[in-house]
Amino acid sequence: MSGTGLTLDFILFLGLCSLGLRPFSANAIASATGVTFVYFASVRRVFRYKGRFMTVMFATYALYQALGTVLVSWVVSTLIMHGLHPVMVKVGILPATFCANYLFMRWLTSCPERWVAVTRR
Known about the structure:
Strand order of the largest sheet: 1-2
Number of helices: 6
Low-confidence stretches: none
Pfam families: GtrA_DPMS_TM
Number of domains: 1
Main location: membrane
Protein name: GtrA family protein
Radius of gyration: 16 Å
Organism: Sphingomonas sediminicola
Helix content: over 70%
Order of helices and strands: HHEEHHHH
Largest sheet: 2 strands, antiparallel
Strand content: under 5%
Keywords: Membrane, Transmembrane, Transmembrane helix
Distance between the termini: 34 Å
Number of strands: 2
């Protein structure tokens, strides 16, 4: 599902850029669309533990995604404004975003009991 979300993000970003949307906005919209697709297709199951929805864990995930989207959109926009092609920029940032997302999700999901304890407070 992540590959489909990435493909959706990439195609939508390039399409929006070709329509004249500014790179920051194009990336923000495309990334949010990809993240939303992946959430509903697969990730939402992560936020259930023993039948309970872990609100604090989800809020942490949502905040990470929102801040990450803004930061990456700024980087994408800046690089494109300095003359790099949108395809090069979007492909070029993949290693950093993949690594950051992997490490964050590993941390987030490594100890579900942590989120149950936080929710009960």
